[in-house]
Design brief:
Blueprint lengths: L1 E6 L7 H14 L3 E9 L13 E7 L31 H13 L4 E4 L2 H10 L5 E6 L8 H10 L5 E4 L2 H10 L6 E4 L18 E5 L8 H14 L4 E5 L5 H10 L6 E5 L5 H4 L4 E4 L8 H8 L4 E4 L5 H4 L6 E4 L4 H12 L2 H14 L5 H17 L1 H27 L5 H5 L5
Parallel strand pairs: 1-2, 1-4, 2-3, 4-5, 5-6, 6-7, 8-9, 8-11, 9-10, 11-12, 12-13
Helix pairs in contact: 1-13, 6-11
Length: 421
Protein backbone atom coordinates (compact mmCIF):
# COMPACT_ATOMS: atom_id res chain seq x y z
CA UNK A 1 0.00 0.00 0.00
CA UNK A 2 1.26 3.50 -0.81
CA UNK A 3 0.57 6.10 1.86
CA UNK A 4 1.22 9.81 1.31
CA UNK A 5 1.30 12.43 4.06
CA UNK A 6 0.86 16.12 3.23
CA UNK A 7 2.77 18.17 5.82
CA UNK A 8 3.08 21.94 6.27
CA UNK A 9 6.89 21.98 6.50
CA UNK A 10 8.84 18.77 7.06
CA UNK A 11 12.04 20.80 7.43
CA UNK A 12 10.88 22.67 10.53
CA UNK A 13 10.61 21.85 14.24
CA UNK A 14 7.14 21.23 15.63
CA UNK A 15 4.92 18.70 17.32
CA UNK A 16 3.01 17.82 14.15
CA UNK A 17 6.26 17.35 12.24
CA UNK A 18 7.63 15.04 14.90
CA UNK A 19 4.47 12.95 15.30
CA UNK A 20 4.03 12.66 11.52
CA UNK A 21 7.61 11.47 11.09
CA UNK A 22 7.08 8.92 13.90
CA UNK A 23 3.94 7.52 12.26
CA UNK A 24 5.45 7.57 8.77
CA UNK A 25 8.52 5.67 9.96
CA UNK A 26 6.37 3.07 11.70
CA UNK A 27 4.24 2.57 8.59
CA UNK A 28 7.33 2.44 6.35
CA UNK A 29 8.17 -0.96 7.80
CA UNK A 30 5.13 -2.39 6.00
CA UNK A 31 4.16 0.12 3.31
CA UNK A 32 5.51 2.54 0.69
CA UNK A 33 5.46 5.93 2.46
CA UNK A 34 5.98 9.43 1.09
CA UNK A 35 5.89 12.79 2.85
CA UNK A 36 5.03 15.84 0.76
CA UNK A 37 6.20 19.07 2.36
CA UNK A 38 4.26 22.16 1.30
CA UNK A 39 7.43 24.23 1.65
CA UNK A 40 11.16 23.90 2.23
CA UNK A 41 13.15 26.62 3.95
CA UNK A 42 16.46 24.80 4.59
CA UNK A 43 18.63 22.14 3.00
CA UNK A 44 18.06 19.34 5.50
CA UNK A 45 15.15 18.59 7.86
CA UNK A 46 15.78 19.39 11.52
CA UNK A 47 14.43 15.99 12.59
CA UNK A 48 15.88 12.76 11.25
CA UNK A 49 13.77 11.28 8.46
CA UNK A 50 13.68 7.50 8.14
CA UNK A 51 15.62 6.64 4.95
CA UNK A 52 12.73 4.43 3.79
CA UNK A 53 10.53 7.53 3.48
CA UNK A 54 10.52 9.58 0.27
CA UNK A 55 10.49 13.32 1.05
CA UNK A 56 9.02 15.58 -1.65
CA UNK A 57 9.16 19.38 -1.16
CA UNK A 58 6.75 21.41 -3.29
CA UNK A 59 7.83 25.05 -2.91
CA UNK A 60 11.44 26.01 -2.20
CA UNK A 61 11.61 29.20 -0.13
CA UNK A 62 15.38 29.24 0.41
CA UNK A 63 17.36 32.29 -0.64
CA UNK A 64 18.15 32.13 -4.34
CA UNK A 65 15.39 29.65 -5.16
CA UNK A 66 13.80 30.07 -8.57
CA UNK A 67 10.40 29.59 -6.92
CA UNK A 68 10.73 33.00 -5.24
CA UNK A 69 10.78 34.70 -8.66
CA UNK A 70 7.64 33.03 -9.96
CA UNK A 71 4.66 35.42 -10.14
CA UNK A 72 2.39 32.81 -8.49
CA UNK A 73 4.60 32.92 -5.40
CA UNK A 74 3.70 36.60 -4.87
CA UNK A 75 -0.04 35.90 -5.07
CA UNK A 76 -2.04 34.68 -2.05
CA UNK A 77 -3.38 31.15 -1.98
CA UNK A 78 -7.00 30.74 -3.03
CA UNK A 79 -7.44 26.98 -2.53
CA UNK A 80 -5.87 26.97 0.93
CA UNK A 81 -8.56 28.48 3.18
CA UNK A 82 -7.96 32.05 4.33
CA UNK A 83 -9.52 31.12 7.66
CA UNK A 84 -6.57 28.85 8.51
CA UNK A 85 -4.06 30.93 10.48
CA UNK A 86 -1.20 29.59 8.32
CA UNK A 87 -2.73 31.14 5.20
CA UNK A 88 -0.05 33.83 4.90
CA UNK A 89 2.58 31.11 4.55
CA UNK A 90 0.81 29.74 1.46
CA UNK A 91 0.77 31.16 -2.04
CA UNK A 92 -0.96 30.50 -5.31
CA UNK A 93 2.18 28.60 -6.25
CA UNK A 94 1.54 26.23 -3.34
CA UNK A 95 -2.03 25.72 -4.54
CA UNK A 96 -0.88 24.89 -8.06
CA UNK A 97 1.93 22.58 -6.93
CA UNK A 98 -0.44 20.67 -4.65
CA UNK A 99 -3.01 20.32 -7.42
CA UNK A 100 -0.36 19.08 -9.85
CA UNK A 101 1.10 16.62 -7.36
CA UNK A 102 -2.28 15.15 -6.40
CA UNK A 103 -3.38 14.93 -10.04
CA UNK A 104 -0.41 12.61 -10.67
CA UNK A 105 -0.55 10.86 -7.29
CA UNK A 106 -0.83 7.07 -7.32
CA UNK A 107 -1.31 6.69 -3.56
CA UNK A 108 -3.80 4.33 -1.97
CA UNK A 109 -4.15 6.64 1.05
CA UNK A 110 -3.61 10.42 1.23
CA UNK A 111 -3.39 11.92 4.71
CA UNK A 112 -3.55 15.63 5.54
CA UNK A 113 -2.05 16.91 8.77
CA UNK A 114 -3.63 20.32 9.42
CA UNK A 115 -7.02 21.90 8.60
CA UNK A 116 -6.07 23.82 5.45
CA UNK A 117 -4.14 20.86 4.08
CA UNK A 118 -7.11 18.60 4.82
CA UNK A 119 -9.11 20.90 2.55
CA UNK A 120 -6.52 20.28 -0.19
CA UNK A 121 -6.96 16.52 0.37
CA UNK A 122 -10.75 16.75 0.28
CA UNK A 123 -10.81 18.79 -2.91
CA UNK A 124 -7.92 17.45 -4.97
CA UNK A 125 -6.81 13.99 -3.81
CA UNK A 126 -7.57 11.28 -6.38
CA UNK A 127 -11.00 9.75 -5.96
CA UNK A 128 -9.58 6.24 -5.96
CA UNK A 129 -7.49 7.00 -2.87
CA UNK A 130 -8.72 7.01 0.69
CA UNK A 131 -8.74 10.62 1.90
CA UNK A 132 -7.94 11.09 5.59
CA UNK A 133 -7.69 14.33 7.53
CA UNK A 134 -5.75 14.34 10.79
CA UNK A 135 -6.58 16.88 13.49
CA UNK A 136 -3.54 17.55 15.67
CA UNK A 137 -5.29 20.39 17.48
CA UNK A 138 -8.94 20.15 18.53
CA UNK A 139 -12.32 21.17 17.19
CA UNK A 140 -12.68 24.04 19.68
CA UNK A 141 -9.15 25.31 18.99
CA UNK A 142 -10.35 26.40 15.54
CA UNK A 143 -12.19 29.67 15.08
CA UNK A 144 -15.86 29.74 14.14
CA UNK A 145 -15.18 30.78 10.55
CA UNK A 146 -12.64 28.00 10.04
CA UNK A 147 -15.00 25.42 11.53
CA UNK A 148 -17.64 26.48 9.01
CA UNK A 149 -15.17 25.94 6.15
CA UNK A 150 -14.14 22.55 7.53
CA UNK A 151 -17.76 21.44 8.00
CA UNK A 152 -18.24 21.95 4.26
CA UNK A 153 -15.00 20.42 2.98
CA UNK A 154 -14.54 17.59 5.47
CA UNK A 155 -17.58 15.95 3.87
CA UNK A 156 -15.26 15.05 1.00
CA UNK A 157 -12.99 13.01 3.28
CA UNK A 158 -13.29 9.34 4.10
CA UNK A 159 -12.17 9.85 7.71
CA UNK A 160 -11.21 12.47 10.25
CA UNK A 161 -8.67 11.23 12.80
CA UNK A 162 -8.36 13.01 16.14
CA UNK A 163 -5.75 12.34 18.81
CA UNK A 164 -8.27 11.93 21.65
CA UNK A 165 -11.61 10.19 22.05
CA UNK A 166 -13.04 13.34 23.65
CA UNK A 167 -12.28 15.42 20.56
CA UNK A 168 -13.69 12.74 18.25
CA UNK A 169 -16.96 12.95 20.17
CA UNK A 170 -16.98 16.74 19.80
CA UNK A 171 -16.62 16.38 16.02
CA UNK A 172 -19.38 13.78 15.86
CA UNK A 173 -21.70 16.00 17.88
CA UNK A 174 -21.01 19.40 16.33
CA UNK A 175 -20.06 18.69 12.72
CA UNK A 176 -22.44 16.76 10.48
CA UNK A 177 -20.23 14.58 8.25
CA UNK A 178 -22.31 11.91 6.52
CA UNK A 179 -20.28 8.94 5.35
CA UNK A 180 -17.14 10.20 7.12
CA UNK A 181 -15.64 8.09 9.89
CA UNK A 182 -14.49 10.15 12.88
CA UNK A 183 -12.07 8.08 14.94
CA UNK A 184 -9.50 8.75 17.66
CA UNK A 185 -5.97 7.40 17.30
CA UNK A 186 -3.31 8.70 19.72
CA UNK A 187 0.13 9.78 18.64
CA UNK A 188 3.03 7.34 18.61
CA UNK A 189 5.39 8.09 21.47
CA UNK A 190 8.64 6.21 20.80
CA UNK A 191 10.61 4.51 23.54
CA UNK A 192 12.81 7.03 25.30
CA UNK A 193 16.17 5.48 24.42
CA UNK A 194 17.52 6.45 27.85
CA UNK A 195 17.54 4.72 31.21
CA UNK A 196 14.34 5.55 33.10
CA UNK A 197 14.35 7.90 36.05
CA UNK A 198 15.00 6.30 39.43
CA UNK A 199 12.75 8.86 41.07
CA UNK A 200 15.45 9.98 43.51
CA UNK A 201 16.51 13.33 42.06
CA UNK A 202 15.22 16.59 43.49
CA UNK A 203 14.20 17.94 40.07
CA UNK A 204 10.74 18.84 38.80
CA UNK A 205 10.63 19.34 35.02
CA UNK A 206 8.23 20.94 32.58
CA UNK A 207 8.41 21.48 28.83
CA UNK A 208 6.55 23.29 26.09
CA UNK A 209 6.31 26.52 24.17
CA UNK A 210 6.58 29.56 26.42
CA UNK A 211 3.16 30.94 25.53
CA UNK A 212 0.25 32.04 27.72
CA UNK A 213 -1.90 28.92 27.22
CA UNK A 214 0.78 26.66 28.70
CA UNK A 215 0.44 28.57 31.99
CA UNK A 216 4.04 28.45 33.10
CA UNK A 217 3.15 31.49 35.20
CA UNK A 218 0.75 29.31 37.18
CA UNK A 219 3.42 26.63 37.51
CA UNK A 220 5.91 29.16 38.89
CA UNK A 221 3.33 30.39 41.38
CA UNK A 222 2.65 26.83 42.52
CA UNK A 223 6.33 25.99 42.70
CA UNK A 224 6.98 28.99 44.92
CA UNK A 225 4.79 27.30 47.56
CA UNK A 226 6.73 24.06 47.07
CA UNK A 227 10.10 25.80 47.27
CA UNK A 228 9.16 27.39 50.59
CA UNK A 229 8.70 23.95 52.17
CA UNK A 230 11.33 21.84 50.37
CA UNK A 231 14.33 24.08 49.73
CA UNK A 232 16.43 21.38 48.05
CA UNK A 233 14.07 20.88 45.09
CA UNK A 234 14.35 22.82 41.82
CA UNK A 235 12.14 23.43 38.77
CA UNK A 236 13.53 23.19 35.23
CA UNK A 237 11.40 24.55 32.39
CA UNK A 238 12.41 23.51 28.85
CA UNK A 239 11.23 25.46 25.81
CA UNK A 240 11.37 28.76 24.02
CA UNK A 241 8.83 31.40 23.15
CA UNK A 242 7.51 34.90 23.54
CA UNK A 243 6.90 34.58 27.29
CA UNK A 244 10.54 33.95 28.21
CA UNK A 245 11.36 37.39 29.60
CA UNK A 246 8.03 37.67 31.42
CA UNK A 247 8.50 34.27 33.05
CA UNK A 248 12.06 35.08 34.07
CA UNK A 249 10.87 38.30 35.70
CA UNK A 250 8.08 36.42 37.44
CA UNK A 251 10.49 33.78 38.76
CA UNK A 252 12.82 36.48 40.06
CA UNK A 253 9.92 38.35 41.65
CA UNK A 254 8.83 35.18 43.45
CA UNK A 255 12.31 34.75 44.86
CA UNK A 256 13.01 31.68 42.76
CA UNK A 257 16.34 32.75 41.27
CA UNK A 258 18.48 29.62 41.06
CA UNK A 259 15.51 27.44 42.02
CA UNK A 260 13.34 27.82 38.89
CA UNK A 261 15.44 27.76 35.74
CA UNK A 262 14.45 28.45 32.13
CA UNK A 263 16.56 25.91 30.28
CA UNK A 264 15.71 26.86 26.69
CA UNK A 265 14.50 24.40 24.03
CA UNK A 266 16.00 20.90 24.11
CA UNK A 267 15.39 18.19 21.49
CA UNK A 268 15.06 15.36 22.19
CA UNK A 269 13.69 16.01 25.67
CA UNK A 270 13.75 12.48 27.05
CA UNK A 271 17.26 12.64 28.51
CA UNK A 272 16.22 15.70 30.53
CA UNK A 273 12.98 14.13 31.72
CA UNK A 274 14.92 11.08 32.88
CA UNK A 275 16.89 13.36 35.24
CA UNK A 276 13.66 14.47 36.94
CA UNK A 277 11.44 12.84 39.53
CA UNK A 278 8.27 14.70 38.46
CA UNK A 279 7.06 16.31 35.25
CA UNK A 280 4.33 18.94 35.56
CA UNK A 281 1.94 20.58 33.08
CA UNK A 282 -0.25 23.54 34.04
CA UNK A 283 -1.87 24.08 30.61
CA UNK A 284 -5.31 25.55 30.10
CA UNK A 285 -5.88 23.16 27.16
CA UNK A 286 -4.04 20.35 25.37
CA UNK A 287 -5.02 18.60 22.16
CA UNK A 288 -3.05 15.53 23.30
CA UNK A 289 -0.31 16.21 25.85
CA UNK A 290 2.78 14.86 24.14
CA UNK A 291 5.14 15.91 26.92
CA UNK A 292 3.10 13.91 29.44
CA UNK A 293 3.41 10.75 27.39
CA UNK A 294 7.13 11.38 26.79
CA UNK A 295 7.70 11.80 30.52
CA UNK A 296 5.87 8.55 31.23
CA UNK A 297 8.13 6.83 28.70
CA UNK A 298 10.99 7.92 30.98
CA UNK A 299 9.39 6.37 34.07
CA UNK A 300 8.43 9.74 35.52
CA UNK A 301 5.03 10.34 37.15
CA UNK A 302 3.24 13.38 35.78
CA UNK A 303 1.07 16.03 37.37
CA UNK A 304 -1.26 17.82 34.99
CA UNK A 305 -4.22 20.11 35.01
CA UNK A 306 -7.33 18.17 34.01
CA UNK A 307 -7.76 20.39 30.98
CA UNK A 308 -9.51 19.65 27.71
CA UNK A 309 -8.85 17.31 26.00
CA UNK A 310 -5.82 15.06 26.33
CA UNK A 311 -4.50 14.67 29.89
CA UNK A 312 -7.39 12.60 31.25
CA UNK A 313 -6.83 10.09 28.43
CA UNK A 314 -3.11 9.85 29.24
CA UNK A 315 -2.93 10.09 33.04
CA UNK A 316 -4.78 7.74 35.39
CA UNK A 317 -5.18 9.89 38.48
CA UNK A 318 -3.52 8.38 41.52
CA UNK A 319 -1.95 5.52 39.54
CA UNK A 320 0.67 6.93 37.13
CA UNK A 321 0.24 10.61 37.94
CA UNK A 322 -2.12 13.24 39.28
CA UNK A 323 -4.81 15.41 37.70
CA UNK A 324 -5.73 18.73 39.30
CA UNK A 325 -8.28 21.44 38.42
CA UNK A 326 -7.38 23.93 35.70
CA UNK A 327 -6.05 27.25 36.94
CA UNK A 328 -5.71 26.14 40.57
CA UNK A 329 -2.18 26.96 41.75
CA UNK A 330 -2.84 25.66 45.26
CA UNK A 331 -4.04 22.27 44.02
CA UNK A 332 -1.01 22.07 41.74
CA UNK A 333 1.33 22.88 44.63
CA UNK A 334 -0.38 20.36 46.93
CA UNK A 335 -0.03 17.60 44.32
CA UNK A 336 3.67 18.36 43.91
CA UNK A 337 4.23 18.44 47.67
CA UNK A 338 2.42 15.11 48.13
CA UNK A 339 4.76 13.34 45.73
CA UNK A 340 7.87 15.28 46.71
CA UNK A 341 7.30 14.12 50.27
CA UNK A 342 6.58 10.46 49.49
CA UNK A 343 9.45 8.88 47.56
CA UNK A 344 8.02 5.37 47.73
CA UNK A 345 4.73 6.42 46.17
CA UNK A 346 6.51 8.61 43.65
CA UNK A 347 8.68 5.75 42.44
CA UNK A 348 5.71 3.37 42.30
CA UNK A 349 3.85 5.90 40.13
CA UNK A 350 6.92 6.22 37.92
CA UNK A 351 6.97 2.47 37.34
CA UNK A 352 3.23 2.52 36.58
CA UNK A 353 3.81 5.38 34.15
CA UNK A 354 6.51 3.41 32.34
CA UNK A 355 4.18 0.43 31.93
CA UNK A 356 1.18 2.57 30.95
CA UNK A 357 3.15 4.30 28.19
CA UNK A 358 3.17 1.11 26.13
CA UNK A 359 -0.27 2.26 24.92
CA UNK A 360 1.68 4.55 22.60
CA UNK A 361 3.90 1.85 21.08
CA UNK A 362 4.29 2.13 17.32
CA UNK A 363 3.01 -1.39 16.60
CA UNK A 364 -0.35 -0.76 18.25
CA UNK A 365 -0.87 2.59 16.54
CA UNK A 366 0.06 1.18 13.13
CA UNK A 367 -2.42 -1.66 13.66
CA UNK A 368 -5.17 0.86 14.38
CA UNK A 369 -4.44 2.80 11.21
CA UNK A 370 -4.31 -0.34 9.10
CA UNK A 371 -7.65 -1.45 10.55
CA UNK A 372 -9.11 1.97 9.76
CA UNK A 373 -7.89 1.79 6.14
CA UNK A 374 -9.39 -1.70 5.74
CA UNK A 375 -12.73 -0.55 7.17
CA UNK A 376 -12.81 2.51 4.95
CA UNK A 377 -12.23 0.39 1.85
CA UNK A 378 -14.88 -2.15 2.91
CA UNK A 379 -17.52 0.53 3.59
CA UNK A 380 -16.72 2.87 0.72
CA UNK A 381 -19.93 2.23 -1.27
CA UNK A 382 -22.17 2.35 1.79
CA UNK A 383 -20.63 5.60 2.96
CA UNK A 384 -20.92 7.11 -0.53
CA UNK A 385 -24.63 6.26 -0.52
CA UNK A 386 -24.97 7.95 2.87
CA UNK A 387 -23.39 11.11 1.47
CA UNK A 388 -25.66 11.09 -1.58
CA UNK A 389 -28.73 10.60 0.59
CA UNK A 390 -27.69 13.55 2.73
CA UNK A 391 -27.17 15.71 -0.35
CA UNK A 392 -30.65 14.76 -1.60
CA UNK A 393 -32.25 15.61 1.72
CA UNK A 394 -30.47 18.95 1.84
CA UNK A 395 -31.51 19.69 -1.75
CA UNK A 396 -35.14 18.95 -0.88
CA UNK A 397 -34.95 21.24 2.14
CA UNK A 398 -33.50 24.05 0.04
CA UNK A 399 -36.28 23.65 -2.51
CA UNK A 400 -38.88 23.77 0.25
CA UNK A 401 -37.37 26.95 1.71
CA UNK A 402 -37.34 28.50 -1.75
CA UNK A 403 -40.98 27.60 -2.22
CA UNK A 404 -41.87 29.14 1.14
CA UNK A 405 -40.23 32.40 0.09
CA UNK A 406 -42.20 32.47 -3.15
CA UNK A 407 -45.50 31.88 -1.30
CA UNK A 408 -45.09 33.86 1.92
CA UNK A 409 -48.78 33.91 2.79
CA UNK A 410 -49.38 30.19 2.54
CA UNK A 411 -48.89 28.08 5.68
CA UNK A 412 -46.10 25.56 5.58
CA UNK A 413 -48.46 22.68 6.36
CA UNK A 414 -50.61 23.54 3.34
CA UNK A 415 -47.56 23.26 1.07
CA UNK A 416 -46.98 19.75 2.32
CA UNK A 417 -50.65 18.71 2.45
CA UNK A 418 -52.63 20.74 -0.13
CA UNK A 419 -56.43 20.39 0.12
CA UNK A 420 -58.30 19.58 -3.06
CA UNK A 421 -61.69 21.22 -3.93
Amino acid sequence: MKIVFLLHNAYAIGGTVRTTLNLAAALAGRHDVEIVSMSRHRRHPRFDVDPRIALVPLVDTRDGSADLDRPEYARPATDFPAEDRRHRQYSRLTDLRVRDYLARCDADVVIGTRPGINVYVSRFAPRRALRVGQEHLSHDAHGKRLRAVLARHYRGLDAVVTVTAADAEVYRTRMTLPGVRVVPVPNIVPEAGVAPSDGRSTVIAAAGRLVPGKRFDLLLEAFSAVAAKVPDWELRIYGGGAEKEHLQSLADGLGLAGRARLMGPVTPIEAEFAKASLVVSASDAESFGMTLAEAMRCGVPVISTDCPLGPAEIVTDGVDGRLVPVGDARALADAMLDLVGDGTRRRAMGQAALESAHRFDAAGIVARYELLFAELRATRHRRAWSRERDRAVNWARRQLRSLRRRLPGRPHRDLLHPQGG
